[in-house]
Amino acid sequence: MKKKPLIIVGIAYAVAIASLATTNLLHNFFGINGIAEHKIDDDPFSSFDVSTPSSSAPSSSTPKGSSTPETSSSAPSTSIETRETNNNPSPYQTTETIFTRYHYQDYDPNGECQDSRGYNVSFYTLEIKIKKITDFRTNQVTDANGYPGDNCLATVYNQIKDVEKKYNVTVKGAINGDSSYNNLDHRLGYVLRNGQLLRSQYRTGNDSVFEDLVLWNDGTMSIYTEPGFTGTVRSPALPTYSTDYLTHNKAWQVWTFGPPLIHNGVITVDEDEDVASPHQAGNQRTAIGYLGPYHYMFFVSQGRNVGKNDGFSLHDIATRLYARGCTLAYNLDGGDSSTFYCLDSTGTPKRYPTQKTPRALGDMLYVVDA
Fold first, then answer.
1. 36-40, 105-109, 113-117: which has the highest mean pLDDT?
2. Lower CB count within 10 Å: N or C terminus of the chain?
């Protein structure tokens, strides 16, 4: 009789181990919601080919990339159209960053530390000029086997420690990313990081967040839609890209949150537009701006603290990035995920999470001088 509890415990333990192994196997090979994931390269920064695709490749019959539905990646075909590229190398000899903290009680030269409703808001910018495209990096947290996924999380600050140790670099600036694997509304859609395609399943529907941002190997940025997008694109009409098109044309990063804030030098969000959230105006925000090839801006603002840091609307952050010369800007994951880090002009680390305990996240954007 005494052996039965031991047998039951043993069986339960074996079932638990088998379940865990099966879960890991399914995750590694089939990812989230049955979408195949890819293991992340150990060092994509030294292996990425920054050369421009051959212009002699025959053009596709569908302009601006194929809109044919796809469920997995295939090797780039020579029939895929080659995009026009900026063939000039970076004009910057070193990768440089300029940090500015805007606070209504400290530094607010243009009266920008108030939102559209008159509440105070603090925000931070990091102007970035990079000497080569591989200095603008992303980090995707992985499991022990090197696969990204739903439960692979670490704070931005711990991710910084990890990449500095792994690649022997100094992170000059970092912000949170788009939560491509960990946000319930963004578990599908392309994931391409550091030149490597990690997920090729497109999303379907008509939500404006389906408009994605790509950073190309020539330092330029652009907005596009995935083949499954059925809504009305912003004016002017956006191209549709397949993952074959993106990989063939040397896309370096792809982000899938949105919406776009500025496109072709025009603010594209209205004053009452927002992402789905119970805090429609007073959110913390994270965004990235584009000032020209190899020239960008990180933006993070505080929020959800009425009277001290109420929070910006999407239109608020669009106007501030526009005032700083951005001709394109894109909204990333915000709320309690918003996190900002940089080294100031003296090399002192500056950390600005938007909640007392920084949230563990699946990814980050960061800059090095490697």
1. 105-109
2. N
Structural domain range at position 131: 39-368
Residues 165 and 244 in one domain: yes
Say what the pLDDT of residue 227 is: 86
Tokens 């950073």, residue located: 215
Q: Which residues contact 1 (CB under 8 A, 6 or more apart)?
A: none
First to last CA, the chain: 67
- Residue 334 near residue 275, CB atoms below 8 Å: yes
- The secondary structure element, H or E, covering residue 341 is strand 339-343
* Statement to judge: residues 124 and 205 lie in one domain: yes
Question: H or E stretch including 262?
Answer: strand 260-263
Q: What are phi and psi of 65, to 5 degrees?
A: 95, 155
Whether residues 65 and 13 fall in one domain: no
DSSP H/E element including 15: helix 3-30
Do 79 and 17 share a domain, yes or no? no
User: Is the domain of 11 the same as that of 137?
Assistant: no
- pLDDT tens sequence across 136-147: 999 999 998 898
pLDDT exceeds 80 at position 24: no
* 130 and 24 co-located in one domain: no
Sheet containing strand 136-140, strands side by side: 136-140, 363-368, 171-176, 339-343, 349-353
Assess contact for 284 and 277: CB atoms under 8 A: no
Do 9 and 114 sit in the same domain of this protein?
Answer: no
Query: What is the distance between the alpha carbons of residues 362 and 84, in angstroms, rounded to a whole number?
Result: 33
Reply yes or no on whether the pLDDT at 347 is more than 80. Answer: yes
pTM score, two decimals?
0.85
Residue 59, pLDDT score: 34
Same domain flag for 26 and 90: no
